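Pipeline run #58 for the internal structure catalog. This entry was flagged by the ingest filter as a single-chain record with no existing model, so it goes straight to prediction. Upstream metadata was stripped on purpose; only the residue string is passed forward. Reviewer on rotation: M.T. Logging verbosity set to normal.
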Amino acid sequence: LSIGLAPWLVRSVVAPAADAVVQERAIELMRVMLLSTGIFGVSGIIMGALNAHQHFLLPAIAPILYNLAIIAGTVFGGATGSGTMGAAIGMVVGSAAHLLIQLPGLLRYHARYTPTLGLRDAGVREVGRLMAPRVLGVAAVQINMVVTTRLASSLGVGAISALDYAWHLMLLPQGIFAQAVGTAVFPTFSDQGARGDFAAMQQTLASMLRMLVVLMLPATAGMIVLGRPFIALALERGAFSATSTDDVSVALALFALGLVGHSLIEILARAFYALHDTWTPAVAGIGSMVLNLLLGLSLPLLFTGVGWKAHGGLALANALAALVEMAVLLILMQRRIGVGLTGSLWKQSVRSLVASLGMALLVLLWLRLGPQDLWLQSIGGLVVWGASYVLFAWLLRIDELRTAVQMVLRRR
């Protein structure tokens, strides 16, 4: 259906303000990339089955193969002159690799395939009941980005690209830590919820939330103060100019303000799912989408009025919407499983914020007083960032940082 409606989707929904050449290319790429949707549907089911057996290795390798295929497709497109179509083809190939690498895991657990819809199975019916609000919640997240892209298409050349680059850079720590923690802890939440052991669930959830705050606040500060030199180092070549670096770094800094929100939503939503409540995260996601739209219509005008980059208003709108959604889910979850959820979280958040601000100050001093060579500036800034946060965390007795490091070392 989406392949057939691709011209209308691009011209009327996604990028109505883009020029005709860009729209035609987007239509071609969309039609190819949509082939991966069905493949990912099957692969996602297999991933869920393996995670339910506490098997995380093959599901973790799958996205790596997917990204490697996109990189290979991009190189192929550059070498053959097919351009971005090479990356689109790489996405389809990568989705197939994402599926195939997980099949040996099914054999390990003696999975059997039966050609039936399984509608008489109680588990299938339960998934069907829970899936509808989950679809709404996921759709709200995607619609948020469609809204952002549509609004950005009217802000001039480069606005969409700047937001896209910044968005994916912001998601890097969220994907490494928040999604990994959410995936690993979900079976535990499900077991605790099924047994009605809300005290244990509260303790587990509070611990995971504190750990993510301790990791995401310094990541936020780091992206704000170190974003520009790292973007210049990684991307500033060819058609990517110093102006492009400025545009992406502004969007990254403002997107990063919502990093804690996006990360905690990953954990809180899964806690609700473990309680067989998919409506609460869905409604919160829809509310976030509406707020993002309202702010996205107003903040770019405000930014333009004070001489700031208009696309930064769209990034800030997304960040604020995520923080509000996080707060709503946190309050509702506390009412659901007990009042002891947020007390220690706020105390640890204040300590982590102080440590992050101290770290950011030292990094800014390094950028101003240290060497101006881009490599030395970036690598040295990263060293100052890590060492100073560890120092402040030790002084402020932020125990979750040590716990997080120990968890990583135990996984080796």
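catalog note: The chain has a mean pLDDT of 88.
catalog note: The chain has 16 helices and no strands.
status: ready for reviewer M.T.
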